[in-house]
Amino acid sequence: MIAEQIMDTLKEIIETNKTEGNVYNVFFHADKAIRNKEVIVESSPNINQEINQRTATSIFWGLYFRKNESEKICLTFGHRYLDTYQQNSCVHYTMLMHEYRHLYDYYSNPETFFKSNEKERFHFELKARKIEVDIGLIFYQSKLWVFKEFKQKNEFYPLFGW
Ligand SMILES: [Zn+2]
């Protein structure tokens, strides 16, 4: 499954670069929850129209996490994200870290995360953007990753997307 390959490669990036601090903490908690199967990893599921509508306008090309009908947390990889993935495309790993940050915040606030108001969601979104910057610096310093993909494929990036 490509999604697992992408998550494994992100793990390699984190380990190879001896990442510390915020990025490592967020990665470690999210990765553990996924490997413990607390989080369901799904590829291009048939989901309801409302969610499709929201993710269709996201730069994440369908990468997001959600609570499914059985109240299980799912990390969802959509068609566009998977179809555009290349192994050296740092934007895909940056997006994954963004969602890992949301997972981290969810586990820090499991009772209230999905009930958060607009201001709280904005706050969570800022934290997710911050981790994009943090991991972006790792890519920049390692000089192994392709930055231009981001410019070529950059699209509308709504501030309140999950
Ligand atoms: Zn987000």
Q: What are the key terms here?
A:
mainly alpha; 3-stranded mixed sheet; 57% helix; 9% strand; disordered C terminus; binds zinc ion
Structural notes for this entry:
- The chain has 162 residues and is mostly helical.
- Helix content is 57%, strand content 9%.
- It has one domain.
- The chain is built from 7 helices and 3 strands, in the order ααβαββαααα.
- The longest helix has 25 residues, at 118-142.
- The model is unreliable at 148-162 (pLDDT under 50).
- Bound molecules: zinc ion.
- Zinc ion is lined by residues 98, 102, 125, 128, 161-162.
Number of domains: 1
**Total beta-strand segments:** 3
What does the overall shape look like? globular
The helix-strand sequence is HHEHEEHHHH
**Ligand roster:** zinc ion
Q: What's the rounded overall pLDDT mean?
A: 80
* Biggest sheet layout: 3 strands, mixed
Radius of gyration: 15 Å
> Kindly, what is the distance between the CA atoms of the first and last residues, rounded to a whole number of angstroms?
23 Å
What's the helical proportion of residues?
55-70%
Order of strands, widest sheet? 1-3-2
As a percent range, the share of strand residues is 5-15%
- Uncertain runs: 148-162
Counted by DSSP, the helix tally is: 7
